[in-house]
Amino acid sequence: MLIKSVLLVVFFAVMVYVGLYARKHTASVDGYVLGGRSVGPWLTAFAYGTSYFSAVVFVGYAGQFGWKYGLAGTWIGIGNAVIGSLMAWVVLGRRTKVMTQHLNSKTMPDFFGSRYESRAIKTAASAIVFVFLVPYTASVYNGLSRLFGMAFNIPYTYCVIGMAVFTAIYVILGGYMATAINDFIQGIIMLGGIVAVIAAVLSGQGGFISAVRKMAKIPSDVPVTMGQPGAFTSFFGPDPLNLLGVVILTSLGTWGLPQMVGKFYAIKDEKSINTGTVISTLFAVVISGGCYFLGGFGRLFDNPSLYDEAGNMAFDGIVPYMLSTLPDILIGIVVVLVLSASMSTLASLVLTSSSTLTLDFLKDNVIKNMSEKKQVKTMQVLVVFFIVLSLVIALDPPTFIAQLMGISWGALAGAFLAPFLYGLYWKGVTKASVWASFAVGIGITVSNMFLHYIASPINAGAAAMIAGLIIVPAVSLVTPKMEREKADEMFTCYEEKVTITKKRSLPAN
């Protein structure tokens, strides 16, 4: 208990110190929200990765999808690394930085408002962010409950309150820069922790080969495999189609999430993009690949204590049960690992929510002539508001909120992915197509929550994103376009000439 307690005290002390150190960057809105658009490659890459992966992935998704798909669940981690990190940086990184700076946009709704010249679209986007990010923020706490109960035997309530308080302190004090620095520190902890945990768990099963052999003997409970053993160690697992839906949602979904795309706004220069692409991809391979790989061995730890009174598996308990037999020092590392993942994601979400509500809704709409200083103060107050609100929901989640948490990722990505992606590359995207994407993305995920015409909410979210990618160009072809001169002016930012070294680009001759 002493070892675990010391680790936590040191961890929280460092977080607060970083918040105090980063205070100098919070004098302006650009500084508070984007770190002055001068964040280097390592901080940006780790900020992206740690915002991506939280306790939801490590405890919830790894346990649930590892149980359902076995070792094939590792494909989710590979998809997260290749599509969610590598391709996201290559396709979105540079263009997002250039155009958002050209349009002076600080948030995703702000980008929509400027790119499509519509205050109504900007306001609607900010409302969508508010409605669907808050329950997603609340879900971040949930992965901690069982781990803290197992490690410290203290109530979940005290755990999440402590986490919320310390996150609020460093986000309020240092804004985006404090978040980015802490994300880097937390990312290092996550990298070391996941490697140590995988090694320890496999060692307890007699090593990797022995663990795989045991998994191969387990008969599948998925009807399509007709109970044949070996499905949980096969290349694509017992249920490839649903596995693909999870890969699409958790990988392509990052392209449309405001807290993820916002990291590209703050990139410093070309070197930061190139270096950040490599770092964030490797980070995702280790963290996400490691989480799902570890979860793939979940069926080796089947135990009656993991089932509820109705006999249903409580997926959130699988990973904590796997870790409960580890030495104290490793359990302490795991707790700090999951706490790091959760606090980094929580910080990113509340900063995104507070900045969006302030800059895209309150400013000019509710409060006229809002000074720079007042905008920063308002965002700091809203950070507290969003953390308290998410904390209240997490402590006593009503049923509809629990359902809403499950679809928030799909709703946000389904609404925003297509108009954001096409808006960076194509002058022909119309206002009507943006509204259509909002309607389809929210419509599919929310209606499916009540009607269940798509069995899995994960697949519903994936369908919403794919539908948006089809609908936006289709509607744009038959609806009025933006004036050509205005569209051309927006895209002139990509044509500006820059001077770079020969090691980065050979001359034409």
Describe the overall structure.
The protein is mostly helical. It has a single domain (2-396), classed as Sodium/glucose cotransporter (Up-down Bundle), CATH 1.20.1730.10. Helix content is 73%, strand content 0%. It contains 19 helices and no strands. It has helices spanning 2-21, 29-34, 41-52, 55-69, 74-102, 108-115, 119-152, 156-204, 208-216, 240-252, 258-265, 270-295, 318-323, 328-362, 372-395, 399-425, 431-451, 457-476, 484-491. Helix 8 (156-204) crosses helix 14 (328-362). It is globular, with a radius of gyration of 23 Å. It starts with a helix and ends in an 18-residue tail after the last helix. The model has no long low-confidence stretch (mean pLDDT 84).
CATH C-level name: Mainly Alpha
Question: In terms of structural class, how would the helical and strand content be classed?
Answer: mainly alpha
Indicate the proportion of strand residues. under 5%
What is the terminal-to-terminal distance? 67 Å
| H/E element sequence | HHHHHHHHHHHHHHHHHHH
Write down the overall mean pLDDT: 84
| Total strands | 0
Features:
509 residues, mainly alpha, Sodium/glucose cotransporter, 19 helices
Give a brief outline of the structure:
The chain is an all-alpha fold. Helix content is about 75%, strand content about 0%. It has a single domain, classed as Sodium/glucose cotransporter (Up-down Bundle), CATH 1.20.1730.
Layout of helices and strands, plus pairs?
Elements: H1 2-21, H2 29-34, H3 41-52, H4 55-69, H5 74-102, H6 108-115, H7 119-152, H8 156-204, H9 208-216, H10 240-252, H11 258-265, H12 270-295, H13 318-323, H14 328-362, H15 372-395, H16 399-425, H17 431-451, H18 457-476, H19 484-491
